[in-house]
Amino acid sequence: MSDHVLIEHAGPVRTIRLHRPEKKNALTRAMYGAMAAALNAAAEEEAVRAVVLAGGADFTAGNDIADFADATARAPGEPGAGFLFLEALAAFPKPVLAAVRGHAVGIGTTLLLHCDVVVASETARLMTPFTKLALVPEGGSSLLLAQRVGPARASWWLLSGEAFSGREAAEAGLATCALPDAEVEAEAARRAAQLAALPPGAVRESKRLIRAPQAAALQAAMAAERASFGERLRSAEAQAAFAAFLRRSA
User: Fold this and answer.
1) What is the pLDDT of residue 190?
2) pLDDT tens digits for range 211-243
3) Interior CA angle at 134 toward 129 and 137, to 5°?
4) CATH for the stretch 5-183
5) For residue 99, what are the contacts with CB-CB under 8 A and spacing of at least 6?
6) Per-residue pLDDT at 121
7) Residue range 58-70: average pLDDT?
8) 40: enclosing H helix or E strand
9) Which partner for 58 in 5, 74, 102, 154 could form a disulfide, CB atoms 3.0-4.6 Å apart?
10) Residue 90: closest CA among 76, 110, 60, 65
11) What one-character DSSP code corresponds to residue 76?
């Protein structure tokens, strides 16, 4: 497990909390591995009936570019830690809720498409800046985002990388609701407890039925994204974009 991923217990609700505030919860491969392991464990534990994904003042600033830029760290075609986490999240059979405050960048936005409930701060700042890093969408967002918010808005967000607020996310249908920042975590906890109190078998089967009609299409989209992402990650464009980002951050 990573020291930057905390596991919290509140009866039948398990919270997976990102805790790297000095980096706005930027995600490393170790953090992805810890989150995937926590999800897989929660899926197997009968006592866990709902999971909340949370950060702190920030949800996540997305990938830690310094950790992420080394495209030679794995063999071509080998799934990255982020993709393994997304696959675990997409396959998770119990309700998943997200409490989104502050920055939710890249995967911090696309992972929300796999959550059953998203409670966002009105002032949260979401964005999918893949093209700015010479990359492509991931997490099934090339399919799911248009279904959720409409093709025109999805195309603009994914192509431009322009930021949008938690209020806009709720109005578009990406978030379940948008609340004042101080109320976000309490509302996510309240809704998680509400779902956890329901008959668990019925909840799991309902989630399966809701997602079943597009399961094959989602699997295909995620596989295509992963292949393209891997190619782009090793491209000269991406390496130049990473280097420029790291120079600005130095």
Assistant:
1) 98
2) 999 999 999 999 999 999 999 998 999 999 999
3) 55
4) 3.90.226.10
5) 52, 53, 54, 55, 59, 119, 184, 185, 187, 188, 189
6) 98
7) 88
8) helix 29-44
9) 102
10) 110
11) T
